[in-house]
Design a protein that fits this description.
This protein has 297 residues and is an alpha/beta fold. Helices cover 39% and strands 16% of the residues. It folds into 2 domains: 29-118, Rossmann fold; 140-272, Rossmann fold (3-Layer(aba) Sandwich), CATH 3.40.50.
Amino acid sequence: MVAEIIDGKAISEQIRAELVSEVKRLTEKGFRPGLAVVLVGENPASQVYVGKKEQSCEELGLYSECYRLTDKTPEEELLTLIDTLNKKEEIDGILVQLPLPKHINEEKVLLRIDPDKDVDGFHPVNVGRMCIGNPRFLPCTPSGVQELLVRTGHNPDGKHVVVLGRSNIVGKPVANILLQKAKGANATVTICHSATKNIAEITKQADVLVAAIGKPKFVTADMVKPGAVVIDVGVNRIEDKSTKSGTRLVGDVDFEAVKNVASAITPVPGGVGPMTIAMLMKNTVKSAQIRAGELKI
């Protein structure tokens, strides 16, 4: 058996194509979706992510504002900027790129964003709404995992999903999303983490295995049930002298070995990664639909 490769790039393009016509319709109605992105400091990876978000806004027709602040920016100045963006009617979504410089309290910053504009889905109000099954915005990477499963015909309904990892960014929210009594969810979910005993025994029970543990090639072929669907959220840079940069990206799954056991698998790169920005854009459009009075949430 050789697994079906779940192409996150192609699926993210489907979502983006759906959004283009929706952005056009909302714009013509006078409610052009707007996203503000705030970058503090010179983190190279963050600069790349912010550039991609700006590019996506432009391609889809969203209004965007980008604020690039130095790493010496006082915390109070950043909080004041967020207050200003909260009041701007043309801004439907606010995203502060993490990580922030050490002198700025990330939790304080995330709490300052209006939950109605928190298109990243990290504000405690939105986390709580997700947990009780009444979400406004779902976090982008976990909801991207759900979209990948549903759009490739691997509906989690009634399946046993095992999630490797319990981070607030991926592990906990993806488990929460997939266990809801809702369309595209309704799974039996088990979470494994660093204190879990006999992890392989549990992962081998999974119909769907979601790896978000942050360890390169952690999931080996003998940890996967034959025919399971494997979603690899990990992004790890490892040494590879055969490449020009001397490094390459790999996931948390040993892709080459596991693809011969699984029925479907996401590659790294090109799997979950492209979904994150697509879901961010989807959340921003949803926020504009709420502003236009088309959705009551």
